[in-house]
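Case study 2.
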Amino acid sequence: MNVENFVNALNADFYTGVPDSLLKALCNYLIDKFGNNNKNHIIAANEGNATALAAGYHLATNKIPVVYLQNSGEGNIVNPVASLLSEKIYAVPMIFVVGWRGEPNVKDEPQHIFQGEITLKLLEDLNINYFVVRKETTADEINFAVKNFQSDLSAGKQVAFVVCKNAFSYEKNILYANNYALSREEVIRRLVNFSENDILVSTTGKISRELFEIRETNGQNHNHDFLTVGSMGHSSSIALGIAVQKPDRKIWCIDGDGALLMHMGALAVIGANNPKNFIHVVINNEAHESVGGMPTAAKFVNLPLVAEACGYSYAATVDSYEKLEKQLNYIKNHQQLSFLEIKTSITSKKNLGRPTISPIENKNNFMKGLQ
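Prediction:
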């Protein structure tokens, strides 16, 4: 279905959410039509943030907002849905558009399988009526579903469209870019070389995929790497948990800008604990590249300054390989809580692979390596 027909059926003038690969057509359309960070469209830090933003929109306008998300973000909306939006509390009507990763009987990555199994059940538990949008769904069916949802919305309830793979299309392919020259893959390759036998915890998406592929190319095992293939935004907290328990090991967290923003409160907790064996690297391309390249708010944030304010002993930013080498040499040889932002382009190989070992294998190998 052409996503423009879907948007027209919703008849909403405010959208917010976190980009998702299954909703790329919708995200491209919204960027093309509205742009970002304005009264019609805001890309949020996380799905709970988006839900609260949408609630504010409703309070200000008495209109129905739309929140888009991957189903992995359902957990982030549970609190505001159950304790803010519910008709038993403030009765804030809202339309959710949920990308159904891990749909049963549809091939997907392991981190999406269980989430896919419980996607509809979570909506049912939250008392959210839903309509599943498939590739063959017609505009008339969407219009009929919107009409059926009106009684729920009028009662201050929330409804959802659960979108299957390839359900949406959009004729324009929006190209996202920045002016940075560094390649993320090359940056990770250099981080691997500098870290040697240190422990690496990598965030979800292409960062973990590239780390795995670089190890394979180098003929190295993966015993020093924990690939956080799911739970976006939590790799730094995982790394902190390891660093506190293994003070004699150097722990590197390879984070992304979208992931960092999603749960940025982790910076304050890391700073408060001040593990001197912790190196926090943020590869910042100012984009949600793993799901299509839509922009993040990182473009407007001085991340090293935030890290310093949270208690990191050292923080810096680089945008060239020369500066990167200099900073890595410094950080590697100083025992202090360090933060390094590396600004990179929005690029990756078209044939970038995925880890060929299961998450359980990764965990077991990693735990053995820690010993």
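The first helix runs from residue 3 to 10.
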